[in-house]
Amino acid sequence: MVKVGIIGFGYWGTNLVRNFNLASNCRVIAVADPRAERLIQLGRLYSHIKGYKESEELICSKDIDAVIIATPVSTHFELAKRALLQGKHVLLEKPMTSSVMEAEFLIDLAKQKGLLLMVDHTFLYTGAVAKMKQLKDLGDLGNIKYLDSTRINLGLFQPDINVLWDLAPHDISILNYIIDEKPHSVNATGITHTSNDIENIAYLTINYNSGFIAHFSCSWTSPVKLRTMLIGGDQKMILYNDLEPTEKVKVYDSGYNHSKDQDKKKILVDYRTGDIHVPKLNTNEALLEMANDFVSCILEGKEPKSSSKIGLEVVKILEASDKSIKHSGREVILDIQSEEIHQSSNLLTN
Ligand SMILES: NC(=O)c1ccc[n+]([C@@H]2O[C@H](COP(=O)([O-])OP(=O)(O)OC[C@H]3O[C@@H](n4cnc5c(N)ncnc54)[C@H](O)[C@@H]3O)[C@@H](O)[C@H]2O)c1
Fold it and tell me: For the chain, what is the largest distance between any 2 Cα atoms, rounded to a whole number of angstroms?
């Protein structure tokens, strides 16, 4: 039995408490949130769970084996560091941390202490993403040429992070999970329409040495909500629409062949439009699958599907996108090939 404490009982923390309550071999012991009204709500919904105003009391509780952190991203690093130093396994909400240095430090600390550090990239546990990975791994799509994602709506303007840090972690984690090749570089542009420097519309391109390309469009200022992703192979292409109630993934047997004409001056393109297949998807709640993965990885010492390595790669891409935005879309080379964890021991003394 793994006894967990959850820090942050806001929008997402409420979903985490509900799902960890249902997870196998797990008991939610405590929740911490500084807002009194949230603790009153906790008491109404779950009278058996202890509420703390101070997260430190939860982290230091001897009754707790694992700490789940669902607070604003600027607080993730300090809370996770304190929990790991107290010998607790940690699940961090996405995005893992505000910087690559912080993420690398936490991975290193968890390794030293022999503790699990996992990041909740919930989409990796959906039936849709599992199916898309299966189709790609079976070679049904052929060689993958592009991934194009749109995640826009009239969204909550976040006070501490821009729209890419808020929305793109979902799509970047899906990209990194499905595509084995490591990215080479990013270009990003964005704009703020408010008086702060926080971009509310942004476009991110991730470049690969093979010629595969990935593009992400994120906005908090769209009148309609769109959650679509295209994955194009040279055999078949996928349209993933997360807002569809059941037919979220459609596989198009469409494509094109190209050749040169006889004097090799013109490109000749033949188009092919075939059947559309709608695969059956697993409809289990993704958050419950994620909670079960966290608990079983603690009990069995396994590597989770949504590992801290994927969490770090997402933060590397987001940090590089910030640099690119500041330089009007200039290409920023990524350092994702290296498995090496850089020591950043100065953070331990803070
Ligand atoms: N995996 C997903 O699909 C998903 C979806 C939504 C949000 N999230 C992530 O969850 C996290 C929280 O987002 P949210 O939308 O629930 O925000 P929220 O503002 O609704 O809730 C955050 C809660 O944390 C509390 N809090 C703030 N600082 C704290 C501290 N130091 N100690 C204890 N509690 C503290 C706040 O009082 C608040 O109740 C973010 O990292 C966000 O990116 C993930």
Answer: 79
